[in-house]
Sequence to fold (301 residues):
Amino acid sequence: MLFVALLLATPALAQVRGVELRVPRAFGYFLGDLVQVQADIRVDPGFTVQRPSLPKPGPVTYWLDLRAVTVEERREGDAPLIRLRLTYQDFYAALDSRTLDVPGFAVTIQSDGKEGLTTAIAQVPAWKIGVSPLREVQPERRDDPAEYLLPDGRAPRLDPQPATATALTLLALTALALVPLARDRAWGPFAPRRGRPFALGLKALRRAKRKARGDDLTREAFLVLHRALDATAGRRVLADDLPLFLADHPTFRGQEEGLKKFFAASRRAFFGRETEAAARDCPLRDVEALLGRLAAAERSA
Fold:
């Protein structure tokens, strides 16, 4: 680490006790490298740095730019410490190794005391860095041009099995983690099956045959078929709605005549109070057969 110390003890500059300059290294810089510099300024108590007096980022010389400046003020012992961190960038295209001078700069410090504003100048000294070329200007002559290049390094042979096993394990764990998510979201096999209202209606009619008789059974059979039609359409289906129902569900077009007969009998049973006549027009066996045909068409859809 390059270390430059400048101690100031003259009466006129008694406010500045010393300036120390630190650089990570003094040599080995190439074109484009960043150079980090730390300047420590020790001053008398009560003094602080005037921010406008700090160096501004920009070109310093034709080959050097100041990229950034930061300030840290703290107390060390009985004296304040002003620490400047400067970042330079080297743009010198060196053809050989050489030492270059980096200009110093002045910083103003101030103290606002009882007797008014007191200022002083802290001089950060110039310093040197060593720069090096990126390549040889005139390398040793060789017969084979390929000898100017270093041989390629040998890469170690890697076994892909551990990585493959890890990837497969993670893939399996991911698939397992998707199972509860798919169940929650009803994806794939967890998706709800489309209902089969006519098949359910056929089962309901067969149960009703074991419990009811006569007019009650006729009305229950008609209601079962009505509910199956409503569930399939997603709304109430009346006799006048039959053409629209068949247009929306062409699978059941083949049962149009049976459905017309059913709706006519249902109207007599529920609105004309002619249950016996309705049972003659559309007997229970016809309702059950119609439900069976609708259920078969439903399964094939």
User: Anything to note?
Assistant: The CA atoms of residues 31 and 93 lie 6 Å apart. The chain has two domains: 2-131, 197-300.
